[in-house]
Amino acid sequence: MSIVRGPRQVGKTTELKLLVEDLLSAGIPPRNIAYYPCDDIIHFRELMDMIKTFAEAGRLQGGFGHLMLEEITVVKDWTRAVKFLVDAGILENIYLLLTGSSAVEIKRGYERLPGRRGHGFDLAFLPMSFADFCRAFNLTPPQAALTDILTDESSFRMYEMEIAGNKNKLDEILEKYLQWGGFPMVVADLVRSGSVTEQTMGVYRSVLLSEFEKQRRKVSLILSLMRKLYAVLGAPVSYNSLTQDTGC
User: Fold this and answer.
1) Cβ atoms of residues 44 and 112 within 8 Å
2) Rounded to a whole number, what is the distance in angstroms from the first to the last CA of the chain?
3) Confidence at 48, pLDDT banded by 50, 70, 90
4) Which of 3, 103, 160, 236 has the most crowded Cβ, counting Cβ within 10 A?
């Protein structure tokens, strides 16, 4: 059982579908592979029934099943379903890959599954790094490690020589990265037209606000908090100060 966590709209769904393509290319029978978004599953027993159905179908084909469940944390008490199925031996021949956008909820979940995950891995799927951002613009990023540049003068000199021909371009790309970050849809807009569309901005705005609404927080509260954080950016600030100024 492996777990991939990361914010919404960071590319988890695309990565899962590319994984399905890779499994098919490797000769895995199509009926042994399943991908399912959990947004419409209300009760953990529904989740349990769905996984059991797949496990039984997978046995008919022989070999191992590959089941990918997206946004597992939407299902309340999802660990109860998984724990029961593991203990019952139903997942013995199933590779289970779970994703979730709530880091807190998914961490709580896998802490409740000690000894039941086999050789599964944990992966944080985050927005693009600056190096990947450079590559999106067909620019080769510097190869030197930051620690080497800061601690070794010869490494610093080599770094200076490496970026000499691209310094202006790197400065321009860094300015864009600091302004927009590395979310895939944003980067695609920047590469395509040099600006981010209002539609893309709307997608990420709704994603951000919906996450707070799920926690039963008012939208006005998060906007107030963000305004305060923006005002004190770069300066020391305490939780107590944020509480007094925002009512959070």
Assistant:
1) no
2) 37
3) very high
4) 3
